[in-house]
């Protein structure tokens, strides 16, 4: 692993361009949907389209990620995403602007990400020393946060200068850069266990067993599943919270996205602190509390307090950045490298499953209890999970072990 810094520098360069272009296109599409329809249901369906393929495929893709060459999987996934985006861009260029095309675009990109993301996450422990994983997770979150900060600004600028079909081509260019950088590095495959099964269902069950036989990891999964049930509907309502509750426009939506990105940037910087690398479970539990409180306080703000909404959103971004980074490192250190593909893809699926239920009810929630009240209810529930996380015995033991280090 002597050249791990050089390898990650090359990979991060490609990921920066790829992630930034993806965020630009994602914001452009969501802004267009918000402005054209003003519908919570349309935003919810768009979010579902971007998540459902990952949910369904995630139970199977991990098996093939652990079987096949992970570098080739990432390259093929990026290629597939680029081709799908190009097809939709051509359809929009010839005047086909029906909502269904946006849903198809989001769904096809999601199918590609069902392979790419777990393959990338499962490859990290094979490329870097264990004591550097928290720092690497922090850098990954910084790349995401920079994309979140710049994404809405660039999306608004590009939509003003070009047709949406042209904006989509920036995503194609980003994917090509990511492919080129991946071709420049060597990503080893994990050693296979002797007697490893070759049956799809049996390998899937092995992935479940890898989680179930470690009580602390099992409870982390349960709490993550419960949390996403409350997080995802609110995440889908952020644009409408800005438009309807705070009487904002595209400019104000961009401010909120930038505020979230600044929070993620700060969270990524926190992840790089050497003193925090041993407190992963404590960080995960505390971030539930911070995220819940940020949602709850956002919901109680009056319509005139948009500036406070943006300020509170920064803390929401910090919490999600630190939480996702710490959770990723926990999986990378507690799970055998030969099973990481299955565990990461399974984690993606099982946490998306309850969120889909919540997203389907987004329109009903917004119309029945109101968008602001949805923030309050979700915030209280997520904060309660943060308190519960310290009381669950297996997690409590892991917390005490971290304190004693």
Task: Write out key terms for the chains shown.
single chain, 405 residues, mainly alpha, Growth Hormone, Chain: A, 0% strand
SSE inventory with pairings:
Elements: H1 4-37, H2 40-67, H3 70-93, H4 99-127, H5 133-161, H6 164-183, H7 200-212, H8 215-245, H9 250-271, H10 280-300, H11 306-334, H12 340-360, H13 362-368, H14 371-391, H15 393-404
Explain what this protein looks like in three dimensions.
The chain is mostly helical. It has a single domain, classed as MFS general substrate transporter like domains (Growth Hormone, Chain: A, Up-down Bundle), CATH 1.20.1250. Helix content is 84%, strand content 0%. It contains 15 helices and no strands. The protein has helices at residues 4-37, 40-67, 70-93, 99-127, 133-161, 164-183, 200-212, 215-245, 250-271, 280-300, 306-334, 340-360, 362-368, 371-391, 393-404. α5 packs antiparallel against α9 (250-271). It is globular. The model has no long low-confidence stretch (mean pLDDT 78).
């Amino acid at each position: 692993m002597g050249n791990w810094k050089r390898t990650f520098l090359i990979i991060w360069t490609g990921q920066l361009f790829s992630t930034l272009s993806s965020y630009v296109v994602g914001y452009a599409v969501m802004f267009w949907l918000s402005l054209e329809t003003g519908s919570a249901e349309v935003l919810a369906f768009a979010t579902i389209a971007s998540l459902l393929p990952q949910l369904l495929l995630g139970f199977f893709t991990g098996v093939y990620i652990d079987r096949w060459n992970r570098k080739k999987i990432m390259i093929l996934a990026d290629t597939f995403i680029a081709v799908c985006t190009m097809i939709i861009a051509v359809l929009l260029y010839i005047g086909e602007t029906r909502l269904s095309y946006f849903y198809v675009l989001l769904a096809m990109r999601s199918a590609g990400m069902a392979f790419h993301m777990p393959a990338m996450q499962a490859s990290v422990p094979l490329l870097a020393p264990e004591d550097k994983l928290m720092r690497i997770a922090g850098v990954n979150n910084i790349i995401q946060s920079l994309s979140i900060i710049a994404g809405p600004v660039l999306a608004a600028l590009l939509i003003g200068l070009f047709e949406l079909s042209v904006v989509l081509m920036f995503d194609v260019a980003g994917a090509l850069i990511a492919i080129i950088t991946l071709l420049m590095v060597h990503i080893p495959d994990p050693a296979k266990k002797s007697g490893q099964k070759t049956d799809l269902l049996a390998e899937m069950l092995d992935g479940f067993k890898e989680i179930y036989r470690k009580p602390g990891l099992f409870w982390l999964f349960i709490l993550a599943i419960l949390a996403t049930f409350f997080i995802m509907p609110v995440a889908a309502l952020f644009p409408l919270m800005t438009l309807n509750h705070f009487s904002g426009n595209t400019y104000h939506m961009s401010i909120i996205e930038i505020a979230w990105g600044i929070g993620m940037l700060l969270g990524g910087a926190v992840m790089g602190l050497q003193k925090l690398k041993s407190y992963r479970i404590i960080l995960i539990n505390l971030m539930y509390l911070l995220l819940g409180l940020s949602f709850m306080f956002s919901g109680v703000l009056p319509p005139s307090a948009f500036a406070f909404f943006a300020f509170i959103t920064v803390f929401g971004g910090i919490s999600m950045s630190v939480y996702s980074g710490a959770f990723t490192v926990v999986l990378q250190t507690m799970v055998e490298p030969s099973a990481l593909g299955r565990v990461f893809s399974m984690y993606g699926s099982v946490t998306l499953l309850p969120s889909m239920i919540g997203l389907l009810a987004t329109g009903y929630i917004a119309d029945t209890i109101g968008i602001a009240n949805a923030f309050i209810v979700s915030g209280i529930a997520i904060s309660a999970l943060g308190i519960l996380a310290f009381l669950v015995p297996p997690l409590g033991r892991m917390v005490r072990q971290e304190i004693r280090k």
